[in-house]
Amino acid sequence: MVGPKLQAFIPLFYLVWSDDLLTLKEFQTLATFIKNQDWLSQEEKEYLLSNIDRSNPPSRAIIDKWKEEIRNAILKNPSIASSYDVAKMLSENEAQIIDLKPYFLKIENDLGYLSEEVISTFKTTADTFTSKNNTLSQFDVPKLTAILDGNQVGVINKVKAVISRPEFAYEYGLDIATYRNRVYDWCKILAKENFGNKAYPKEYGGGNDIEAYFAIIETLSYHDLSLVIKFGVQFGLWGMSVYSLGTKKHYEKYLKDIGDLTLPGCFAMTETHHGSNVKGLETTATYNHKDQTFSIHTPHPKAQKEYIGNAAVHGQMATVFAKLIIDNHDYGVNAFIVPLRDSDGNVVKGVTIGDCGYKMGLNGVDNGTIRFDQVVIPKENMLDRFASVNDNGVFESPIPSDNRRFFTMLGTLVGGRIGIPRSALSAAKSGITIAIKYADKRRQFGPDGGSEVPILNYRIHQRRLFPHLATIYATHFGLQYLTRLFLEKTEEQIQEIEALAAGLKAYSTWSTTATLQECREACGGKGYLSENRIDNLKNDTEIYTTFEGDNTVLMQLVAKNRLSEFRKEFGKMNSLGMINYVFENAKTALTEKNPIVTRTTDATHLLDFEFHLQAFQYREKTILASAAKRIKRLIDEGLEPYDAFNVVQHHMIEVAQAYLERILLEQFQENISKVQDQAVQAVLKQLAQLFALSVIEKNKAWYLEEGYMESVKTKAIRKMVNQLCWEIRPNAVGLVDAFAIPDSCLAAPIVFNS
Amino acid sequence: MVGPKLQAFIPLFYLVWSDDLLTLKEFQTLATFIKNQDWLSQEEKEYLLSNIDRSNPPSRAIIDKWKEEIRNAILKNPSIASSYDVAKMLSENEAQIIDLKPYFLKIENDLGYLSEEVISTFKTTADTFTSKNNTLSQFDVPKLTAILDGNQVGVINKVKAVISRPEFAYEYGLDIATYRNRVYDWCKILAKENFGNKAYPKEYGGGNDIEAYFAIIETLSYHDLSLVIKFGVQFGLWGMSVYSLGTKKHYEKYLKDIGDLTLPGCFAMTETHHGSNVKGLETTATYNHKDQTFSIHTPHPKAQKEYIGNAAVHGQMATVFAKLIIDNHDYGVNAFIVPLRDSDGNVVKGVTIGDCGYKMGLNGVDNGTIRFDQVVIPKENMLDRFASVNDNGVFESPIPSDNRRFFTMLGTLVGGRIGIPRSALSAAKSGITIAIKYADKRRQFGPDGGSEVPILNYRIHQRRLFPHLATIYATHFGLQYLTRLFLEKTEEQIQEIEALAAGLKAYSTWSTTATLQECREACGGKGYLSENRIDNLKNDTEIYTTFEGDNTVLMQLVAKNRLSEFRKEFGKMNSLGMINYVFENAKTALTEKNPIVTRTTDATHLLDFEFHLQAFQYREKTILASAAKRIKRLIDEGLEPYDAFNVVQHHMIEVAQAYLERILLEQFQENISKVQDQAVQAVLKQLAQLFALSVIEKNKAWYLEEGYMESVKTKAIRKMVNQLCWEIRPNAVGLVDAFAIPDSCLAAPIVFNS
To answer: What region holds the Acyl-CoA oxidase/dehydrogenase middle domain (chains A, B) (predicted)?
Structure first.
């Protein structure tokens, strides 16, 4: 019936009827095209038009016939690249068709698709390389685990064994009272194992091993985080405050009972109206000369202690921070041991306890409020390591400045700012493990004619997860470094260590929040079910960015510390000219070395550790100098320093970030250089490169503004980040297996039976 | 006792003893300095050194005396700017001191602080401008509310009145069973008010007003979001699937009962193994010729329906999506009404229902799994608007292509992608209202000598919240626009509207997640307490980025739609040369107009609406063209299109984002131009400027890479963003009050009694 030349239109017919996007307009476009072909007879045109009559669509049979003919044409000639080529074949190289090539190509375009896409639907593309990039660990996982655990492997494995016991199995949807008691019971088990008192002196039943204590916190954090926080409140905050701020008489009286959890207690610092600004807290401890006692008092409701862990139900005593008043003179904030409940749990007279109730997470921890109405305690209950009241009722202290004494006291509590980020990191490890292992199994979509592909093979999915994985590894080594510094600290280093701890606490908890948010979304609906744990991991760690110091406030402190370091380094910083000088120096010093570098884009250079570290150092130095410069200028312009610092707050955060990221990269690279095993070193190297380049990419606008890189380079870096993700893909599962999180802790069904 | 010249050292003494940061090193520095002053006698040196002997600190009395002397000096001469000036005064202009000026300045620096900071602690700086920038609404709030509510004010206020009734009061920590029934009862109340059937035809008891239905969803979203989703499942997904995919016989049989909630039902599309790739779902509906029935069957466990709202407890029927099989031929996915429970709630034979259990949020919604074991339903249960089986058991459809029919069916359900983003937006409005009103009251830190300052006065806090506030306003107008388009849609627009709905669903839900995350952190500990609602707002909306289409998948669809629009626009896109041509055109077209613009930084220009829109359009066009270019090149290089699209996935997301942001800005600006009231227009203008500039700032690396802006300009934009935040501050509370969220819905105690 229809001659070969008409066959040429079959691809177009098939297209308009099969394509799921075409609308009226496309049908009209095609109709017009046909009408305009004056080499066609009227009846030929009518025949063709009858095939695209929307009021009278062809039967499935006919469409299937078209499809067959197209497929056969393609199978006969695999070199076919456009539907015009098909048209040509079907029309047996009809001369007019060949002349019409441009028109056929145009109509294909007007119909809004790329020929290749249509043709490809006929080729079986099951063997796309996207389908092939699957899990294939290229290194020995246990070797990497050994590197991560280091010298703490013993205690780590001991803790893992304990929390893997059946009595530690998770249970969801417990009512809050049951949950709180469950967590309390878990803590008792841990106390029996002597995990709680690990950091206390041997003479008080402890293990005298603070390093192990941190490893315990970190490992426990693979389990329920309410347990970790309850544990940290009792043995860390309550116990260590007695140990750090008190003296022998307090150790002898309390430390053993705290360590075996026969004396549950609290750390009562924060007040409703004073969280970050602790110096401003208003609870008073007034000295009574007549009977050598203190009266602990809450002057008004907003001065009540708030969010106090262990307070709502279990706490029997508390380290209470209050302003010491003697003869109406305020001697600043000091710490006192105040009883809350008797051993039967009855609240003592003068104390009023409230319950913080339901929280976003950590509902296994009994946070509460505490109010004191002239509660009288004996003189010896003052934690008197840094200040005391002598028998004549006279204040005594080796540190005359209230300010300085206060910060010295806080300084002794810096341990909390090492435990929290290490706990946060474990939570991030759990989350990324769940997300990556699920994405490795979960298949969705795939090439035409091929089976569905693991979603971890999709570039966007890799980009969502792998930079976080790299950051987790970088942070791991950074926190190891911080811990070592803390253990070996000299008086000279104290400030720097405090700043670094504050900074890494903020950095690590923020990236944990970001990581878990991404993991939740990356796991789709499954990531929303509590059984898969992203829920609790995210909601429990959510408050980590706030407690132990609000992250934003901490970052400001870190930046101020960097500024004063900076000033010490280059004297005479009071003169703006001099700052400018130093500033320009910092800039040129590194760039002038190699002017071409701003344009270099070859892989060797982009993957070079030295290039990475230099870029980080350059950013750290320059951004710090420019902050100093801005502040100085603002003050010279007559601004109050308070206003000046407010104006540059955003800048200050970047100062702190650049400093922290430089430390993380430095430590990551240094640890890699020490790795013996080639394969392990190779995969860690890729992670370090991904970490470095994604941080640079995040800050690329800044590098461009500074002229440190040109756009050709930042674009090359973006491509390299994609490439690294692609190359890390086969090792991704191995890299999370290396965390060696116990299955019973991971627990998420999507990890084990997807 | 001590001569005036020694007085000069008092500022230094005071410093070392009062500063809370100095360590051993600083004491040594000062000691060395003193020892090196050969103009001092030996005993003078010894006296001075005795004042910085750490083993024998001065008494508080002495420190206080020093402090007094310094204060007096400063009061006598307010022009004093450095502690050297103080030294000079105290030494009564001792000649040697004046000669020593550089040494004094140096030692101050070596001690690591800026003189100004020390001096300022002696001046009362209570009147910093940071302290003064407080709430002061400069516009008439109700007028703005009227603009936001528009023609829907009637139904909006009606809904607000209902959800403000006592029976709608929140209760936290309900067990899941109670919570689910509470939400169900709430839905019954709303049904009685004829909110549920608002969109259905009048003849079936409806209000025939889809616009009002969307306004209802949006307003309900100020309340518990489990309520909104349960409501949406019943009246939107279940009811509208019957209405959109069924025919008269189904309307008559079901629509009224669905609308008054006597027939609770489900929308059973998603399967465990097929969420995003719905076309791949495996449930079958096999036609039985003998008795003209269908057998609905779940071939294997992973093909069970999952996350189905209303399934676990209340649903009696479901619209089930299944592959239609006739005589072993697969006719693609179609929809069928299948009974799940009888009216007494007993599950029907062949149906197995599971409970999804605890979720991160929305625990008031009974999501469940459904399995079918050869469940037989009558032929008329097929929703046959787009396809049917005739009495001879032959498949019939006006749309022969299975693909196309499927997407046409889905297209009729696009309403869900308008309701969800509008619901998400309301949640964001609640969160930002809580965070801003709290930050306006919460005071922490302050200038020396001044009282504490509202944290909303801190630049960093403004930067955390205000860009989100601006985005919320932009999204509000964007979703209004989408709704109008949807209501007035012509067949030609369908695809674009579907793409826009998909895109705005993703954009709006992602920014809601980001906004609420920021709000949680910005509210500190209070933001973690469930009573303040950020908890539920965040966790309930968390899944919005996944359901109704995973955001990442949706953004890919939007980008693909943009690409085909692009191809239609400029024919012959199959030739790379042509794409390049268009690409270069898109670039130059806008830049060549004004070459200097890349460096312009004056405020008038930076705040100019036209500049903003041009920058957005430029980004949209260029990034789209470059994506087309990359894909084309990759395919020419021999990549399978499937691989090519995988390589550019990340780029595709940006294509979609640029498109959506351009639409939002366009709509925001257009709506502002229509505002009559000057004051309201002024404040909205600032918000639109903040929205535009923070988006540009977010993408500034790209603008720099493209050479569309130079660094001098991007830096100026960063400053301008800070400035706009600062200027919006006094109106911030007014801007959230304009949302007019009922107090009973807002509920957060920190909003009302901080």
So the answer is: 266-375
What's the whole-number mean pLDDT along residues A250-268?
A: 98
- Which amino acid is present at B141? V
* Contact residues on chain A for B276, CB-CB shorter than 8 A: 444-445, 524
pLDDT value of residue B405: 87
Cβ-based contacts of A647 with chain B (< 8 Å): 459, 722
| C-alpha to C-alpha distance for B698 and B694, rounded to whole angstroms | 6
A726 touching B, CB under 8 A? no
C-beta of residue B189 within 8 angstroms of C-beta of residue B166: no
* Length, in residues, of chain B: 754
Report pTM.
0.90
d(CA A421, CA A512): 9
Looking at beta carbons, which residues of chain B come within 8 Å of A18? Answer: 401, 403-404
Cα A222 to Cα A279: distance, rounded to the nearest angstrom: 35
A:B CB pairs within 8 Å: 339
Choose the closest CB to B459 out of A114, A647, A706. A647
Q: Decide if A60 and B24 are in contact by the 8 Å CB cutoff.
A: no
3-state secondary structure of B538: helix
**Looking at this protein, which amino acid is placed at residue A248?**
K
Alpha-carbon gap, residue A461 to A441, rounded angstroms: 13
| Alpha helices (H) along A274-415 | 402-411
Among the ranges given (A69-73, A147-151, B298-302), the one the predictor scored with the smallest mean pLDDT: A69-73
Burial (CB count <10 Å: 0-12, 13-18, 19+), residue A98: middle
Q: How far is residue A486's CA from residue A474's CA, in Å, rounded to a whole number?
A: 19
CB contact under 8 A, A491 and B447: no
- Cα separation, A279 vs A258, whole angstroms: 27
Q: Is A398 on the interface with B (CB under 8 A)?
A: yes
**Cα of A20 to nearest chain B Cα, Å:** 4
Query: What six digits make up the tokens of A659?
Result: 């400093």
Which 3-state string (H, E, C) describes B159-188?
HHHHHCCHHHCCCCCCCHHHHHHHHHHHHH
Rounded CA-CA distance A470/A684 in Å is 9
Q: Which residue has the tokens 């006192």?
A: A336
| Residue in B130, B543, B649 nearest the CB of A642 | B130
Give me the mean pLDDT over the B12-37 stretch. 76
State whether A445 and B538 contact (CB < 8 Å): no
- Angle, helices B576-591/B609-636, rounded to nearest 10 degrees: 170
Chain B stretch 557-616, residues whose beta carbon is closer than 8 A to a beta carbon of chain A:
564-565, 567-568, 571-574
Q: What is the ipTM of this complex?
A: 0.90
Evaluate the CA torsion angle B564, B569, B574, B578 in order and state its sign.
negative
Which SS3 state, helix, strand or coil, does residue B608 take? Answer: coil
Cα distance from A202 to chain B (closest Cα, Å)? 30
C-alpha separations of B470 from A158, B87, B683, B702 in Å: 52, 51, 11, 22
Please report which confidence band the pLDDT of residue B197 belongs to, taking 50, 70 and 90 as the band edges: very high
B289 touches chain A (CB under 8 A): no
pLDDT value at B589 more than 50: yes
Six-digit token string for A548: 């132990």
Q: What is the largest CA-CA distance in chain B?
A: 121
Residue whose entry in the numeric block shows the structure tokens 């299937």: A64
Smallest CA–CA distance from B443 into chain A, residue: A273
Alpha helices in A203-350 (DSSP H): 210-220, 225-231, 239-245, 248-250, 256-259
**Residues B740/B525, Cβ–Cβ less than 8 Å:** no
Distance separating alpha carbons of residues A287 and A325, to the nearest angstrom: 6
Domains of chain A: 4-123 (no CATH), 165-413 (2.40.110.10), 417-583+599-752 (1.20.140.10)
Residue that has been written with the tokens 């006296």 in this structure: B47
Decide: B695 and B665 in contact? Cβ < 8 Å. yes
What is the amino acid identity at position A386? F
